[in-house]
Each structure stands twice: as structure tokens, then as C-alpha cells.
Amino acid sequence: MKTTPRRDQLSDSDYLVAITAGDVAGIGPEVVLRALTEGQAIKNCGPVLIGHPEIFRRAAKLAGISVSLSELDTQLPSPDEFRDSSLKAWNSGEIACWNPAGDAVCTAPLCRVSAVAGDAAFQYLVNAIELVQRRCVDAIATAPLNKEALSLAGHHYPGHTEILAEKCGVSDFAMMLHLPESAIAPWRSLVRKPGSNVPFELAASHGISIAHVTLHTAIADVPNLLTVESVSEKVHLMSDFLRRIHCDRQAIAVCALNPHGGENGLFGGEEASIIEPAIEHCRATLPNVSGPYPVDTLIRRAIAGEFDGIIAMYHDQGHIPVKLIGFDAAINITLGLPIVRTSPTHGTAFDRAWNPSTPANASGMREAIRMAVSLAKTSRFF
User: Whole-angstrom Cα distance, residue 137 to residue 133?
Assistant: First the structure.
């Protein structure tokens, strides 16, 4: 009887990535298809589209993309049969497409919030999670969903990250944004000055990664959500990620919460009572952890090459610099899961979606798929 191969028995072309359509009213279907067919298209894995094939065909026609889909049986077969069918399609010049959510999504209004699109996006995600848990695929890359549409459909989650954590049964997880080195390189040359105290040979070369201690929550709630344990957990999750992308230096900087790092308590005491003790705790096993640093200067130091990973205290503290530097190229990676999940960092872009005069940029989705394959090779899930 044939058995599903272990990861160390797979060649690059054998890896399968489930790619969800996200909210179909937005740019998700378009960026997925562009990532797989245009420019530096993905060649080293087999994609499996999770969504309605008619939606993908509509997106392809509107964007002028030539694509042939191979529709998989809606009744989920065995992992071996699923893998074989998906890889056979890819090797034959087609893209496998699996629709686990019925036909209602075809009636979803475009470019605006709707419960029908929100429910379909949820179903695509939870079924993609099941695919990787059953070893039908090796990783997940997700197109953006809309949180309001999700809520209208009765799925009350702040976003992808929390759904993934619940379905995977984990409580120690983090949202991390990653900018690949190709997106950072032009900025590095701008901020590295003659006489820099960061020797070129020691500077970062694996991009910049920023993990968040708190996620989708009100700013007023952030101080009460910070603990020594929560900060320490995120540092260790970051270290694990850097190890998996073969970053040996693992220089991790921890952000201060308050302006100027709190000015020794003048602007707040969280640095002394929470963040500094967490850093000291981590240094027992991770000597290259340092901080807390004021964020306004920390980001420049990271771009110059002083740090590989950054731990932000709240959502916008990490998101703003990443999206300023490389909005289209940045990706989101969920740390702490027993499976691999990546995504672009942009949203559904209802204001630009389904409009041939405003083509979507697929570089983030393309990088998300590439990173999904890279991380799948080092995953401990199997």
C-alpha cells in the first residue's frame, strides 16, 4: 500500500501548497493567479487553489490571464489520491482547484462586504487547515479576507491568525511580518554610512522579521496584556523562525512600549517591570537578544543590518515600518503553529479589485508561496 512520503523524501517539485482564495470580492483570486502565472512565477511546488473554480476563471478572464484548472472532487479523497491528482495536474500544465464551500459564493457582490463572501473565505481557510493536518498538502498560503464580512457570516474572529491558532489547538503563537532581503537591500544602502559600526560581513542578509506580542486589540488594552511570559514567548518563536531560515546570528531586538524607552519610568514603567525582565530571561539561552529600544531609532538600526528580528509590542508598532518599506513584498507568517501558514500583508483592496485598469501587485503572494515551501522543508509537523 502506498504511503504519504516524509518531508525528507520529497523533492522540491513534490511539495504542495494550498492557496486560499480569501474574500472573493477583493483582489485575492487575481493575486493568486498572477503569482502562479506571471513574471517570476512559482515553479518549485505544486499549487492547489482552494476556492470556487468559476471565481478563479472570472478573475483570469478579467485580468487577461491564461490558466487551465483541474477541478478536484469535492468529496475529499485520501491524502495519497489528493496529492497524486494535484501534482499530476501541475505537471500537465494545469492548476488543481478544490472547492469545499459550495456554489453560493458565485452570487457574492464584488468589491464590497458581504456575508456570503465572508462565509466562503472562512470555509476555504478551515478546510485548507484540514488538508495540511491530514498531510494532503505541505503548507498553506492565504489570500486576504475581510474581517467585517467574516463577522457578518457569524464567524467572530479578529482575523486569520486567531482562526489558525484555534483550529490548530495552540495558545503560544504570534503574527510575524517578514520582508525578504530583496526588498530591504535598497534601503540598507541608504542608511549604511561610511564608518558604520556594523561591519558589512556581520550585517543581516535574511531580510527583516517583526513579530508582535499583542495582535488585534485596542491600544488602550495593550499595557495590561503585556507580561514577562508573553514577551519571552515571542522572542523564542522568533528565534525558532530565524533558525529555520538558516539565520545563524539571530540578533533579536525587543521594542520598548513607551516613547524614548520610557525615560527610566518618566513615560511609563512597562520597560522596567515587564520587558527588561523578559529579555534577561531569554538571554539565558539566546545571548543575541537585546533591548528594550525606542522604535523610532530601532527600525533604522535594523535596516542598517544590526538586527535580524524585532519583537513589537502591538500591531501598528510593527506593521507601519514594514508596510512603509515594502508594502507589496511583505508577507505574514504565523509563528507557533504545528503547520506552515503564510500570506501577503495587504488586504482585500475592494477599491481596486475586479478592475482591469488597476491590476493587483502579486509580489507579496508570490513571496508567501515561496516562503511556505521553504518553511515546509523544515517543518516538524511530520
Answer: 8
